[in-house]
């Protein structure tokens, strides 16, 4: 039951970030801080794990594979030249959830994590497309395939990092 609640909680977090974008930044930050205070070492894992995803999304943004609507609030205008703040917070929330679910994820074979992660990650971005949170100038089919490939790398990296950081925790 705990993991169902964590999954539902993350889906709510995802919805606030993607659908709400900049209007729920304060709530997203508060939820992250609460998570990091409650779950030991989730902050460290989230920052390290998110760095690759954030940099990867920045590269996809700079290559024109993904575009984002400009923020209407001048406070968030600096994010028009990088990926949106809500996406950065989403990465931190996602990787925090991965840390919380680490025992279950580590029981899965690498191929299972890669297949599930690559399809789930690409579907997440496609859902963001349907909610007008992101635009795919190269079209849906090509960009979806590219996102699956990118998420193969992300999923493998997260699986490896989980194992690495869990080993350090027990030694």
Give the distance, in angstroms, between the N- and C-terminal Cα atoms: 30 Å
Helix content bin? over 70%
CA radius of gyration is 16 Å
Q: Helix tally?
A: 7
Q: What is the helix/strand order?
A: HHHHHHH
In total, the number of domains comes to 1
Strand % is under 5%
Helix/strand class = mainly alpha
Quote the average pLDDT.
91
How many beta-strand elements? Answer: 0
Weakly predicted, low-confidence segments: none
Largest sheet: none
Shape: globular
Pfam families: DUF2878
InterPro entries: DUF2878
Protein name: DUF2878 domain-containing protein
Transmembrane segments: 12-36, 43-61, 81-101, 108-129, 141-162
Give an overview of the whole structure.
The protein is mostly helical. It has one domain (2-170). It is 73% helix and 0% strand. The protein is built from seven helices and no strands. The protein has helices at residues 2-18, 25-38, 42-62, 85-100, 102-106, 110-130, 140-170. Helix 3 (42-62) packs antiparallel against helix 7 (140-170). The radius of gyration is 16 Å and the shape is globular. The protein starts with a helix and ends with a helix. 32% of the residues are buried. InterPro entries: DUF2878.
């Amino acid at each position: 039951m705990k993991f169902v609640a964590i999954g539902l909680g993350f889906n709510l977090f995802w919805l606030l970030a993607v659908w709400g974008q900049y209007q729920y930044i304060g709530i997203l930050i508060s939820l992250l801080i609460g998570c990091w205070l409650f779950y030991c070492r989730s902050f460290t894992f989230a920052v390290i794990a998110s760095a690759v995803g954030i940099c990867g999304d920045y590269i996809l943004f700079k290559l024109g594979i993904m575009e984002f609507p400009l923020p209407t609030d001048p406070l968030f205008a600096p994010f028009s030249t990088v990926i949106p703040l809500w996406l950065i917070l989403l990465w931190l929330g996602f990787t925090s959830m991965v840390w919380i679910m680490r025992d279950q994820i580590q029981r899965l074979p690498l191929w299972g994590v890669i297949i599930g992660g690559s399809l789930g990650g690409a579907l997440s971005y496609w859902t963001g497309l349907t909610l007008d949170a992101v635009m795919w100038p190269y079209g849906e089919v090509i960009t979806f395939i590219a996102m699956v490939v990118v998420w193969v790398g992300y999923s493998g990296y997260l699986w490896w990092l989980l194992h690495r950081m869990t080993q350090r925790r027990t030694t």
